[in-house]
Input
Amino acid sequence: MIENYNFRTTPFREKILSLFQSKEYALSLEEIENGLDQFDRITLYRTLKLFQDQGIIHLVNSGNIKKYAMCKEECTSEKHHHHHHVHFTCDKCQQTECIESKPLDIKLEGYQIKELEVNVSGFCKNCL
Ligand SMILES: [Zn+2]
Ligand SMILES: [Zn+2]
Ligand SMILES: [Zn+2]
Output
């Protein structure tokens, strides 16, 4: 839980964290806001930024909607381990999941790749 992280825990941060833990798919800002009774938007943005910096969540670009997904345990504040997974967004229910995959071997001659995000769309198990 939050005690394992090296930042001060607040009821608000706990709430955001449990929101992510309760869902198996990535959450859009709107979904996060809908899960909160009352909140201050600035505090929410700061909390999401903090969680990203701490390796708790990562940003998912699915279509034009930004979403946030829980990181695996190996992620730390020092660095997010290379996420060897793809982001799958279902065309029907619009949910985005992180799905483990083999490291993608993409080489671009003469370029250094810093980040690689793979977005896949289709129908999820629930919608098939
Ligand atoms: Zn991460
Ligand atoms: Zn679906
Ligand atoms: Zn992911």
